[in-house]
Design the sequence.
């Protein structure tokens, strides 16, 4: 199995596991909510419904993102992943706002949850299932850099805290008589959902807007290029990511009297090194003749060029 095929298999496996986990937890939580009438448990049920919708969306997005580049999409289909993640952020934010409205209603008219043991048992099962799923998702994201699966994993990680909060709400409300604990904790869960939505949306928008790679990566690229003795300067470094794939463009400044064959060989060597640092990256390098100032031999930086196009 090639590296690309293994990557595709991991991504598909993560999406199938996500849909299966969300579907199973929905069935359990529907029963538990009907038995307990807990608004905190209702919040967890709503989140699981959104998990299922988001996971199905992720499944289709990942399948499309794995379609090879074609004549109409020469940079591939990777940006469908941040689009799906952005839609997930909208679903998560909507659930948070709905939960706030429901919690405020329960604060005004408190209700005592019932049969807390059922709810606690379901939440414990949810925690175990979610831990298993997120561990697998983190493994897949580490090996594939999938933004859609990363967003799905972030959502499920917030579920872990949510499930623990539901257990706390049930214990305080049923066994200690603190009726308001249920809606108050549900409000806290809503805040977590809104925060998760913001993080997912910001990361997705960065990719959709072709945000530069982090400064540390840009410096790493520059250091790698400048380490070659034949490179006299580098400028116009441009980077971006589509989620799964990075794109790197730069201009090399080399001796203008160098043969075309030699200049091409230098560029090929640097391209190979950058692709080793960033596997799967598309690297585009342009060679420029370098002109040194009269009294110094320094690299031309990206904002102050000393060589003509």
Sequence:
């Amino acid at each position: 199995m090639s590296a690309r095929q293994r990557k595709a298999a991991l991504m598909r496996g993560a999406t199938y596991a996500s849909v299966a986990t969300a579907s199973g937890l929905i069935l359990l939580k529907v029963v538990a909510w009907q038995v307990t009438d807990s608004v905190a448990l209702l919040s967890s049920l709503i989140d699981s419904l959104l998990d299922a919708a988001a996971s199905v969306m992720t499944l289709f997005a990942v399948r499309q993102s794995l379609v090879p580049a074609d004549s109409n999409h020469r940079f591939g289909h990777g940006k469908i992943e941040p689009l799906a993640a952005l839609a997930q952020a909208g679903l998560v934010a909507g659930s948070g706002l709905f939960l706030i409205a429901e919690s405020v209603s329960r604060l005004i008219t408190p209700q005592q949850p019932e049969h807390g043991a059922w709810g606690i048992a379901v939440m414990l099962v949810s925690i175990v299932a979610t831990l298993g799923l997120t561990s697998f998702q983190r493994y897949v994201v580490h090996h594939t850099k999938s933004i859609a699966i990363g967003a799905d994993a972030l959502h499920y990680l917030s579920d872990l805290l949510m499930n623990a909060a539901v257990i706390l709400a049930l214990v305080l409300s049923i066994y200690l008589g603190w009726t308001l604990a249920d809606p108050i904790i549900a409000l806290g869960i809503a805040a977590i959902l809104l925060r998760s939505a913001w993080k997912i949306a910001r990361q997705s928008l960065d990719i959709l807007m072709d945000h530069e790679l982090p400064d540390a990566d840009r410096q790493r690229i520059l250091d790698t290029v400048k380490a070659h003795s034949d490179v006299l300067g580098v400028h116009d470094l441009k980077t971006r990511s589509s989620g799964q794939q990075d794109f790197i463009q730069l201009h090399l400044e080399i001796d203008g009297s160098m043969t075309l064959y030699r200049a091409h060989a230098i560029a090929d060597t640097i391209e190979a090194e950058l692709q080793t640092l960033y596997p799967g990256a598309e690297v585009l390098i342009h060679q420029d003749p370098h002109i040194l100032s009269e009294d110094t031999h320094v690299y031309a930086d990206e904002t102050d060029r000393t060589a003509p196009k």
Summary: The beta strands are 233-241, 246-254, 282-289. The chain has two domains: 3-208, 215-289. The longest strand covers residues 233-241. The two ends are 44 Å apart (CA to CA).
